Amino acid sequence: MTTPRLPTRHCGRRNTSVSLHHAVSGRGFTLIEMLIAVTLLGIVAGLAVPQYGAYVMRARILDGFAKLADYRARMEQYFLDRRSYIDDAGNCGVAPPPTAASGDSFEVKCIATPRSYVYTAAGIAAKGMTGFVYTIDHADAHVTVSVPKPWLRTGDCWTFRPDGSCV
Q1: What span, in angstroms and rounded, lies between the C-alpha atoms of 150 and 134?
Q2: Residue ranges of domains in the chain
Q3: pTM of the prediction?
């Protein structure tokens, strides 16, 4: 036999727990939800920012390689036209500008004789490229002269990753 249920009396009051819950959740996020969101954002930023910085550095290095390759091609064309790598004043036949442009990450210099030349690209400190020095010569030898610590240098090619990977 079951006992009969007694009717519940509300005395004119509503169930306040449900009403308060809806009122609080309808206004915004709770502190816990905000802390979780900020924590996840911090984790993602902690992973993404260093990767982005490494990507930008590699792009700047590859831009330096492109400049060296361009000067080499122009110098070879100059040699085909003049049969010498130097101009009438004894300077490099295709001389880079004396100072790097504002968007450049490398400053390029040239040393030449009538039968040989070497272009050197040195990283600009203001662009975060201190310690990077690369060369290319008349024999198309790509040489990494120096890289910053803790990078590994591979001398007989252009190093473009911290592990010593070459182009």
Answers
A1: 17
A2: 29-146
A3: 0.72
